[in-house]
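User: I'm putting together notes for a lab meeting next week and I want to include a structural view of one of the chains we've been expressing. I don't have a solved structure, so I'd like a prediction I can at least talk through. The sequence is below, exactly as it appears in our construct file.
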Amino acid sequence: MMGGQAITDPGAEIKVSFGYHCNSNTDDSGDESDGIDMRPGTKLRRANSSFSCLSGAALSANATLANTNICNGLLGAEILPALDSPTSFRRIPSSPSFSKLDLLSSSFQSSLSNLSCSPSSPSELAEDNSSSMKSSSESFFNATEVKIAGGAAGEDRVQAVCSEENDSLFCAIYDGFNGRDAADFLAGTLYETIRHYLSLLDWELERDSKVNKGSYVDCFGNALPYLDVEKPCTSFKQKVLNSLEQALTQAENDFLHMVEQEMDDRPDLVSIGSCVLVALLLGKNLYVLNAGDSRAVLATCGESIVTNSDGRLQAVQLTVSHTVDNESERIQLLKNHPEDHSTIVGGKVKGKLKVTRALGVGYLKKKSMNDALMGILRVRNLISPPYISVQPSLTVHEISSSDHFVVLGSDGLFDFFNNDEVVKLVHSYIQRYPLGDPAKFLLEQLVIRAADCAGFSKEELMSIPAGRRRKYHDDVTVIVIILGMNKRTSKASTRL
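Assistant: Thanks for the context. Below is the predicted structure for the 496-residue chain, given as structure tokens.
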């Protein structure tokens, strides 16, 4: 039912919907009247054209609180409401800073204290947050302001941060499970942690260049001093990927540290986790990190791709699915636990999870956290933890004029559509509606298919309350990035 009828008004069920079109032409007046609005969205002006359009949407299936109470309420009460489910991008000075959370590990507080000026108490944090949480330090993006959007749907969280000055875009989908705490934690900390590690990389390159007197091309294509003159491009890209991995490892350590502090009062925290998908577009380079079963799919007609006879775009998956259904993941998991004959039970890790990599889920990583659970909730025969890894898959793709768009989605999207179907749906939609909202359109098509599979009309399915509707589909979050390197796409996305 690829060309199914679109839902014109899904009501309040689509919890998050945001997006904008970019105007590739700028003027000296600073007037943004030439910008293009994507409903519901705002105008965006940029000097470069790595991407021309962005839309995001999410659909709830699980019943959960809008903000869970973690970090003694500091994260949920003081930070998340300001970022929860905006209907469009908002321009803010610098970027939000979440570096002063008293329950995080001292190493994280210490490292981030060098990055930004942080309030010393929850009340000061709330006051600073209300004024967009200004940062006094130079960041890796070196931007005086960014645009930010995000929100929550069920146990999913979505974020997008754009630096217009530096032609950079950060997008992330956090697919939580067994609760929202891990996804909330990532939404409140990971972007800033990544900024911190990239800022350290920027400082390191500048320092070493003064010693080695070499040159390098930074992530935005600028020629700058560099320490490795033999392979500057490869070396720099690898360092960015390493920074992303370090940031996720830091987030894991700090989340588990928080869990250990609170698990006596909230033993459920040890079972809560989240898959992680991050796409970082810096100039023409797209860096992708994933841990879990969310996906990033590129639509391209590149020369290295065998094109269809009808000229359709090809779907290229940029991520690895970390589940027991993936043969390489399953083999590696069994190899890591040769003495445990119950590593995989019923198609799940220790009979609990299908994903093999995720943030959190401490009870499958530490015996002490498993012991915090009572009765049947506790995993029996936890012989050789950890059974779940947070080590991500990483890749970098250099955007070319052959690449049209990238779709980021939580696994709920791919429960109903394969990669080729997703690309075909988005491509056909943006050809017909260049100023439309492709992410929301994908969710509308998913509802139609889910209803058809369940034997319902779409109205009947959407009338089922969240929680009960989880029987028919998962929480679903989608981000569509239309790449501006492709001239045809840029032209279609700009009012002439």
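A couple of points you could mention at the meeting. The chain has a mean pLDDT of 75. The radius of gyration is 22 Å.

User: Perfect, that's what I needed.
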